[in-house]
Amino acid sequence: MPRAVSITGNDLTLRQFCSVVFDYAPVRLAPSASARMQRAHALVQSLAEGKAAVYGVNTGFGKLSDSHIGRQNISQLQLNLVRSHACGVGDPLSEAETRGMMLCRGNVLAKGYSGTRPEVVVLLLEMLNRGIHPVIPSQGSVGASGDLAPLAHLALVVLGEGEACCDGKLMSGRLALKKHHLDPLRLQPKEGISLLNGTQGMLSVGAVALSMAESLVDTADVAAALSLDALKGTPTAFDARIQRLRPYPGQALSASHLRRLNAGSEIRHSHLHCAKVQDAYSLRCAPQVHGAIRDVLTFARRTFAIELNAATDNPLVFTEEREVLSGGNFHGQPLALALDFMGIALTELASIAERRIERLINPEYGDLPPFLTVDPGLNSGFMMLQVTAAALTSECKVWAHPASVDSIPTSGNREDHVSMGMGAALKLKRIVENLKHVLAIELLGAAQGIDFLAPLKPGRGAQKAYDLVRSVSSRLDQDRSLAADIQRVCDLIAQGRFSKILNPSGRSKTSI
Fold first, then answer.
1. Cis peptide upstream of residue 376 (ω within 30 degrees of 0)
2. Which CA distances in Å does 205 have to 209, 399, 464, 503?
3. pLDDT per residue as tens digits for the range 83-141
4. Among 263, 488, 496, 507, whose Cα sits 20 to 30 Å from the Cα of 21?
5. Would the pLDDT of 501 be above 80?
6. What is the SS3 assignment for 460-479?
7. Looking at residue 218, what is its pLDDT?
8. Distance of alpha carbon 148 from alpha carbon 443, whole angstroms
9. C-beta of residue 128 within 8 angstroms of C-beta of residue 96
10. d(CA 405, CA 420)
């Protein structure tokens, strides 16, 4: 059982996020956070009993914020807010993304600036620990005031409404709570809006994508090394002296990986004195391209790490000053830009991998037979795999168009500029999925190329990649459908098996 995670609202890490989301580490609310929450809630209660209008406590919301709500209707106000905002559509978020939302929302409330009772967070965390996962439609958020619709669907289950996946079955939120002897929450002042206001939808989808992206950029280094040997390329361009003259951290790391992967290559030794001096950019510039993508992921990781422990509610409750201040921390622009940047970067990773696939199958570029087949003409070999990779890469290019440059005013033009951050996150998710398949195709093609150079062997690290491919896909001697082979290699990529060739511990030097 993974180590339990204690949340305070101030020090949740991306590594802990992954432990809870993927490894089901138990979570609890820290006593210090509970005490802060109680103090903030007491202030909200006292304001709710007064006559002064306080946004989110005794007023309407958005364009309706000028409407004053009487004391007798404050609880109903919060309930109505959750119900009315739960209008998302589209495919549900994955279990991992849903767990991430629950954890992140609980951590924000634990910070103590939302004015909710500790019981709200305790129930969220108990749902996490017992595997009660709200069904959250993925579409319907414009990224300000945060991810309102997705978070409303999460909140419905906390109230014993909506739908949840529990014990492998779809059921009502009320039944899911009842099965685990949990009581639905009855909302008190400000608790409805506190459950809804924030960026935890786009943050969770982005953080889950980042955890895979780290593995994918390592996998791309592995695939490039195998392709380099299959194409009888030279690792000269990866020399550390070259990298030191342009000292980007990501470039240096990818070059180091490629040197290590190709070390000891019998194929390289066989053509040391050939006339070819330089390789095509998709091989020679792999450190510069892969490394730039690594540096983008570092930027995104830094952004996500800040957002994990940021107060993104509105209004915010400051107990020492006894003030409730309205602001805009729910606006998703910092995340939207990082998510779009990630999507652009990972599309470039697919693009350069697809070019290496083309070089593997095209006899104009090397000594390999046309389309990597023994009897071209009778057999088409890997012809259509490159077509598939081209289709996937082209889709990525469409999805790489930034969502964060768009804005449609909402809420009667009160919310006149929005981030579209959730749109950026959902596009990124699709790019990551396509990239996995493009890299799987490159690995299959490179392994087939290595077969034609036998008995010479590739570099020691590249040989491990070859063996891993061949553990799930046999050499193609006669045409067969390779769809299942692509998926099996893709599954190995998703499990981090190729990344582990570089990092046997299972964690990249730049891992979250």
1. no
2. 6, 16, 32, 25
3. 999 999 999 999 999 999 999 999 999 999 999 999 999 999 999 999 999 999 999 99
4. 488
5. yes
6. HHHHHHHHHHHCCCCCCCCC
7. 98
8. 41
9. no
10. 8
Give the CA count within 13 Å in the CB-facing half-sphere of 156. Answer: 26
> How confident is residue 64, by pLDDT bands cut at 50, 70 and 90?
low
Catalytic residue among 24, 55, 113, 365: 55
Q: 116 — phi, psi (to 5°)?
A: -90, 160
C-alpha 307/C-alpha 204 separation (Å) is 10
DSSP string of 213-227, one letter each residue? HHHHHHHHHHHHHHH
Check residue 145 and give its pLDDT: 85
To the query of whether residue 55 is one of the catalytic residues in this protein, the response is: yes
Rounded to a whole number of angstroms, the distance between the first and last alpha carbons of the chain is 20
Question: Where do the domains of the chain lie, and which CATH numbers do they carry?
Answer: 5-198 (1.10.275.10), 212-288+357-502 (1.20.200.10)
> What's the rounded Cα separation, in Å, for the pair 117 and 363?
68
pLDDT of 174 reads: 98
- pLDDT-derived band at 72 (thresholds 50, 70, 90) equals confident
Q: Kindly report the pTM of this predicted structure.
A: 0.95
Q: Which two tokens stand for residue 16?
A: 């802990």
pLDDT for the residue 510: 38
Asked if 510 and 294 count as a contact pair (C-beta separation under 8 A), the reply is yes
CA pair distance 376, 354, nearest whole angstrom: 21
